[in-house]
Amino acid sequence: MENWKAMLLLVASCQGILLSLALLTSFRKRIGPSLFLGLILLIISLELLNDWAIQIHYHQSPAAIPFWLLESYLIIPPSLYFFILSTTRSDFQFTRKHLLLYVPAVAEIIMETAATIRFRLTRQVTDLFRIPAWFFFTEILPVIGIIAVLIFFGKQLRLLSKNQKASSQTRQSLIKLYSFFATFLLLSIFWIADAVFLLPVFPFEEGIMIVFLFTLAYTGYSSFTFFDTPQTSDVPLTESETQSESPLFPNYNDRTELARMENLLKETKLYTQPKLSLEDLANALHLPSRYVSYLINTYRATNFHSFINTHRVEEVLRKINDPAEQHKTLLALALESGFNSKSSFNQVFKLHTGQTPSTYLPKIREKV
Asked: Which part of the chain is the HTH araC/xylS-type domain (predicted)?
């Protein structure tokens, strides 16, 4: 029975660690929900791995790698808080000041590591948990933090439920969020019973964590888009369905921000930058990139690159009709308008005008 339990703990923890690493490395330029969910899953996985180590008496081995030093419960409350913010608020941006919430966890890891190094060098045991302040800091404080975060989580879910349209996509997204909320709530109840009231409920905690990791691993491996949040997927709307405020981004007025985006492009001609990205445009507007993508997809019925290329083609056409630009070659006009090669310009130009540049230009010059 013990061998069977140890094997189950090892498999669950290894799956959780692999999944957490996949989530931690899935983000690129922008820190988002996957990073914070990955941190939470990593702590849960290390907890189960530590339980496995206890089962096989791994801690007593002289060559044991002290991976449990990274297992700080203080990582969970801020990670869950940022996961909620980055999932439910389109304007959330992770900044350096947010790192301050992870200082307690770093302090715990440093202290535990120092105590372990001291023991290995001198064989003198430093039992930090005998210090009441340390026990409160590492065991009770995370419980208080998780309770506060879950209250906030519940409020955000209620607001999100009111703002979301009843499409199948948004319903699925809400179901995922409610599932996370229910899991963390259940874990927290047992966590409080264990840490505060010293009740023998840890086996139930283990069972919940194992089921949680196996479920996420199976679902994630079969479809990694399962970890997309409601705001990472654009929901196209017809013109009759559009409103002054987006159901996905209630903090913004769509038509105001759309007009501001068009004015910015007209005044600054950002589209003439060959390597312009969605993030660049979003930064210039001081808006989340997901929201800018939503505006383009919903109100212009196209993606970012096609939207920008449309502005570039219009710029080329304006230059062609401008007498002051008549001395320039068509390729020069294209490069000035933001295209980075002749082939891409020819392809995009034909897509937008229905004619190749070589066919279109003589007709325009004849009119001029």
From this structure: 255-363
Residue labelled with tokens 């900044």: 95
Q: Please, which pLDDT band fits residue 367 given cuts at 50, 70 and 90?
A: very low
pLDDT in tens, 190-203: 988 988 888 999 89
Q: Are 311 and 271 in contact (CB under 8 A)?
A: yes
Domain shared by 105 and 218, yes or no: yes
Q: Does 275 fall in a domain? A: no
Residues 191 and 324 in one domain: no
Separation CA 108–CA 110 (nearest Å): 5
Does this model's pTM top 0.90? My answer is no
Contact 160, 171 (CB under 8 A): no
Say what the pLDDT of residue 167 is.
43
- Residues 251, 357: one domain? no
Shared domain check, 162 and 214: yes
Sign of CA dihedral 225, 229, 235, 241: positive
DSSP letter (8 states) at residue 364: H
- Total domains in the chain come to 3
DSSP string, 124-175: ----GGGSHHHHIIIIIHHHHHHHHHHHHHHHHHHHHHHHS---HHHHHHHH
Contacts by 64-73, CB closer than 8 A, 24 or more apart: 66/113, 66/116, 69/109, 69/112, 69/113, 69/116, 70/42, 70/46, 70/109, 71/43, 71/46, 71/47, 72/43, 72/105, 72/108, 72/109, 72/138, 73/43, 73/138, 73/139, 73/142
d(CA 102, CA 79) in angstroms, rounded, equals 9
Does residue 272 belong to any structural domain of this protein?
no
